[in-house]
Amino acid sequence: MSQDTIDYGNKGLLERLNWQDWVYAILLFAGAIFAFKQYAQYMDIYEISFLFGAAALASYLGWQWKSLAKLVLAVGVMSIFSIVLYDGQQASATQKFLLKFLISSQSAVMWMNVLFILAMLTYWFALFKKSDFTARVASALTWSAVLFGFVGLMVRWYESYLIAPDVGHIPISNLYEVFILFCLITAVLYLHYEQKLNTRQLGGFVLLVINAAVGFILWYTFDRQAHNIQPLVPALQSYWMKIHVPANFVGYGAFSLAAMVASAYLLVQKGVLATRLPSLDVLDDLMYKSIAVGFAFFTIATILGAMWAAEAWGGYWSWDPKETWALIVWLNYAAWLHLRMVKGLRGALLAWWALIGLLVTTFAFLGVNMFLSGLHSYGTL
Amino acid sequence: MNPKLSFTKNLFDLLSSMRFAVSLLSVLGIASVIGTVLKQNEPYENYIIKFGQFWFGLFERLGLYDVYHSGWFLLILLFLVISTSLCVYRNTPHMLKEWRTFKESATEKSLNAFSHQASYETDADLETLRPKLTRFLAAKGFKYKIKPQADGSELIAAKAGTHQRWGYIFTHVAMIVILFGGLLDGNLPFKVQELLGQKRIETLDIPESQVPEISRLGIHNPSFRGNMTLTEGSRGNVAFVRVRDGYLVQELPFSVALKDFRIEHYATGQPKSFESDLVILDPELEAPITKTISVNHPLIYKGIAIYQSDFQDGGTKLNFKVWDLLSTQAVPAEMNGAIFQSGELGAGAKALKVEFNDFRKFNIINMSADGKGKPQNVGPNITYKLRDIRGQAVEYVNYMQPMQIDGKHYFLTGMRETVQDEFRYMRIPVDADFSLNGFMKFRAALLDSDKHREIARRIAKNSLEDKREPAVKKQFEESVVQLLDVFAKGGYSAVAQVIEQNVPEKEREMVASTYIKMISVAAFEAYNMVLEQDGQPPLPSNADTENMLRDSLNAFSDIFFFGTPYYLQLEQFDHKEASGLQLTKSPGQKWVYLGSVLLVLGIFAMMYIRERRIWLSLRPAKQQVHFAMASNRKNLDFEKEFNDFREQLKAVIV
């Protein structure tokens, strides 16, 4: 056989693209250019670079992972449709049928909540029934939840500008909004591995932590009316928010995913559900990978946070409780990675560590806001 | 081996070991928790109150009030630097070697020991095989080196992803660089100077110009973080650096003047922006620099960054009506003052010093009962203290405008005796003109025993039937007067006391409710009497009136627990603001950022570049190609890749 005819599956990224990929990227950049033409005068140089950076990033990720491209397009189409329905009137959210019951920001978030709950139940049902079809349904439900969640955030972004132009801001500014972001990022990370490893058995585990967040969102909405859009305090009015917060939540999401995989690992090790769940090797590998992703992004987020602090608080590091706990989280996973990568440690210890790491992470994310006071008090209960 | 040498060697091994590094990471993490649980850098009095003298002293010696600058914490960081440095020193040569080498000297024997290997039978010769295999390797992104062997066979040693080794170097050097940068910005130089007795913190509240040289930091101080408060129209050339329970004066190489400070608000009342119009005055400048700073937008001049940090009152001028709540007159006195200044009230032993502490033009409060409603602006308030000649002070907070609570309007005033207490609020209902006058006159009438008989007479006239005996009427009036006399001396609690003393327990409830009824009827008459004197129509008999009177009586009862008899009603103000600036010189910042970039590059290199090595041993003599593969991190990706390569190589070779 001639060597030239052998496909090693190692073509460069650009060579692998088909026409749909190009259309996808062109659409994204057309959108970015449209936004630029419309709003450039209100954006600073950083925000403009984020706009095109986001288009480039979404193109790249969509090329690498085709399902994500579909999600991005669906989010775009539904968000634009919703915005058209709003027609510049905030009141439309409660007057127009489709908005009121489906895709106003608030309704979309509620659909996300419902779909995540259904997805979790379906995943567990599939696990116990060993039903591949049910698992596929669960997977589809999770994708839909993610779709609705992102639409909710996009529309909320638009809606904030309807309240007043100076109130408008990206919806990642308080606990309510970042909890939605957390659910979405954790779910997307999970779905990525679900496809990559071709295993749907872990969905029930990961959806547990997502639904804990959903529970919080529901309580926060109904008991505290936290879904009301509030204007930004001066310290948050910065382009840094657009990169610091998402990077942080990739970190939190990945750590949560790792912790849930760790719990599955521990169960399998004890022989519980061992026949239904992936093997220990796969779980261990996944746990490592998500902690690695989390650690990388958490590091970036913390650095971005420090840079922002240098601009807003007068110093890149003030030993503020949030900063300090970010450091603690970082040290925790740094130690984990040292043991795993250098010592080659595997097994229950690391799984337990990843699980307990979630507690530390949760405290850094939530506990600091609840129990400690400091500069970073942007979400209180 | 010489024992001394072996001790050094052991120490070196320990300090550069991973075990030690991971322990340090854990210790650092745990130590960091302390400073988040215990609020740092509070005024020392707060700690004394919280912990008591003994624990306060112990915690102070442990440096717990500023953990992150305490000696022992810096020592942990120092050990981290040492440990990381030794780790880098120990491992870098190895890493660089691994990065460069193709490991082409691998022997047949060692390759046979690999866990991932395969053999292929082929009758092709070297010249045919070599280009095929090297093209395969190149296509897979491997670099290779060909080494002919003594026995006529050939070894192709290939590597990919060895840049991963730089990840190790980058991340660890990054830690050293970041900690070095942090050290530059830390207060180590001051600590040393303090230890040598060259510097001392100032703990007295004295004017800046009187702070002695020993507590001043010169303009060449490389790193500091201080605060400066400027009132509008003033300028300053020093910043204050807070250290423990005192401060240092940091001299600046220029002056900063504040032209204007502005707070903008959203429509909902929440603050939208804080802005200061600054002017930098420096003899080296041809013209002063004018710049507006705001949160997130500092000004950097001569390496010193000037931040908008907070704001406070800058000496707002105030104009008050002073009501004596226990006077039988309802005529307020006039009083002028300014924030941070003081005034006098009363005379002799009852003299009180008024300390005007704070004025806030906007107060965003959530007034809804369940806390779920939207916060709203309730207008200006003033905080002041009334201090008696023994030094005891009562603190008050008064809102200038009436506030709406449950649909009714009140003037709110809070008082507390110590800072730890919450303010306790007295609600004074407004009169028909939304002013305090109605209540004040009503209060004066109730306090005035000369008017009690008249009130009693009116009640008797309005509520007793005319045909009653004059004697009964007289007796009724007498009891009303008595009740009002008691009420005027201490409100409801005085009445309660009288009941407790004179009435048997069984009847108390009944008597109390009779008294309360009588007091409310008296209140109605008293209020109308006041209105009548002012030539105004009487109160209508309805629920609103009833509510207003009940609130008035409650407020009346509260004045006996108000600490002092004075109520300062804010009439006018001339708002003057002061901007709180933070000034920072941070030479370590660029090092920290450099370290951060290295850190991120390093982490990605370490995690996402996978080092893999391939050896292909071409042995035409044996009609065999031997394939071995290794990675420094064996995981599922590697397994998959090995399996793919094994199959693909088969296609290439066979």
What would you say this structure looks like, in words?
The complex is a heterodimer of chains A (381) and B (654). With 381 residues, chain A is mainly alpha-helical. Chain A folds into 2 domains: 17-64; 82-371. Chain A contains 14 helices and no strands. Chain A has helices at residues 13-16, 19-39, 45-64, 66-86, 92-95, 97-103, 105-129, 132-163, 175-197, 203-224, 241-269, 280-312, 321-342, 348-371. Chain A is globular and about 55 Å long. Chain A starts with 12 loop residues before the first helix and ends in a 10-residue tail after the last helix. The model of chain A is unreliable at 1-5 (pLDDT under 50). With 654 residues, chain B is α+β, with helices and mostly antiparallel strands. Chain B folds into 4 domains: 3-97; 101-163 and 610-653, TATA-Binding Protein (2-Layer Sandwich); 188-222 and 224-314 and 578-585, no CATH class; 440-570. In chain B, the strands form 6 sheets. In chain B, strands 14, 15, 18, 19, 20, 21 and 22 form a 7-stranded antiparallel beta sheet that branches. In chain B, a hairpin with a 5-residue loop joins β7 (246-265) and β8. In chain B, α12 packs across α13 (543-558). Chain B starts with a helix and ends with a helix. The mean pLDDT of chain B is 90. The interface between A and B is large, with 59 and 64 residues.
Keywords:
heterodimer, A: 381 residues, mainly alpha, 14 helices, B: 654 residues, alpha+beta, TATA-Binding Protein, 4 domains, 15 helices
Short description:
Chain A is mainly α. Chain A has helices spanning 13-16, 19-39, 45-64, 66-86, 92-95, 97-103, 105-129, 132-163, 175-197, 203-224, 241-269, 280-312, 321-342, 348-371. Chain B folds into four domains: 3-97; 101-163 and 610-653, TATA-Binding Protein, CATH 3.30.310; 188-222 and 224-314 and 578-585, no CATH class; 440-570.
Overall structural class of chain B, as computed from helix and strand content, comes to: alpha+beta
> In which range does the helix fraction of chain B lie?
40-55%
Output the number of helix runs of chain B: 15
Helix content of chain A: over 70%
- What is the molecular shape of chain B? elongated
Distance between the termini of chain B: 57 Å
Give the H and E element order of chain A: HHHHHHHHHHHHHH
